[in-house]
Input
Amino acid sequence: MKKLAMAANRASKSATNVKKDVTYFSDDQEFETDLEDEIEVNNSRKSKPNKPTVERYFDACEALNTVPVAKFVRQFTKGHVDLKHYGIRDIGAQAIAMALEKDIVVTSLYLHDNGIGETGTIALSRMLRDNCFVLNFDISENKIGRLGTRAVGDMLLENASLQEVNLSGCGILGKDIKQFLKALSCNPYLKSLDFSYNDLGDEGAIHLGRALSKNQKIEFLDLSWNNIRVSGIEELAKGLATNKKLRQLELSWNCFLDEGANRLGSALLQNHCLKVLEVQSCGIHTAGVFKIADALKKNQSLEVLSIGKNPFQSSGAGSLLRGIRCNQTGALRELLLDDVVFDKECERELDALLQERPNFNCSWDVSIRGGHAINGKKKKPDAVEIFLTFVRTRGLRLIDLFRMLAKDGNSTTVTKNEFITGMKKLNAPLKDHQLRALFDVLDVNHDDRVEFYEFLSSRSHYLKAVRK
Output
């Protein structure tokens, strides 16, 4: 009997152990991830310092019956979540929104090209309405729809932290952004808004132009590739004329022709803050260029003008160069004339300008000499060329590089010492004298500090280098 009892006891213990093993295996498989071993995810649940956010994320994934993304678990404690091209779709966006609702760590959320639609965008917008720690939000290349667009606009009315919003390539229509008129009129925090590669048309441009006249905070606005024509540019020009804060405006690849260029020229005569203007491939002929050239004779703020890929040739280019030369106190230091042909007169004007301003940069397509076409040259300091190549090869965004160089990561300025020390730590292929020269180029107002908008003015170079 004793032997039978001992055998029964062993069998009972064995059954218990088997049951425990089965239960453990089930728990272990509960949050299987498509990107990492499930062990990493389970360890993350135990070891991450900001446990409430992790727990909320796993609970949300369980409730929504979706697979957690291990990269989100790894990154959120660092404050920078980058899930570009991850295909999380609406359900994944909802899980992230639920997790970050009360989070105080994440400051950047990049969800470019994730198949997110209206439902996911609405969930993220609700989260951002209450979250006052996220500074940068990128939902570009997602078809967020009419309701998603309106949700983002409503969110910006109440959000008290966002500084950058990227809505590029989201299929947004002009009639759906009326809410942004209110948001941009009263939001005191937003500095950068990217609406490129949408279909805003004249209706959307009119809304944004009216908002621009009231907004005195936004510094960067990208409206390129939006099918904007004359009536839209007319309203944008009115807003630009009275705006006192916008530093960079990108309008390339719209079709507003000479009449639109005339409106912009008039706005440049009144505007005193814009630093960078991009109007490539906008159907601007010689007459429109003449109007902009007249504005360059008096404008004191513009530093970079990108006006290439338009159907004007040597006479238009010459008028721009003469306009720049006439303005002895002007700030313009770079003129981009891609696909524009220079004749001998243009070359003489450029040579004279370079004698007066040795650091002036100009790029064009070809020069005509004695009936022969000779490739145009891009004239710029060697240090700048090396810097742009370095930024491109490292895969950095300018804002990310700026934060790396800033002492506390959130400062709006970088000193010369911080710039040189930071670039050395990043192993930039530049010597000390080149770094000092590069800093002097970026330091437009010569106060021994580079502000973010000054750093941002090199973005046109960066985009050009990336496209190549």
Summary: Residues 53-375 form a domain with the Leucine-rich repeat, LRR (right-handed beta-alpha superhelix) fold (CATH 3.80.10.10).
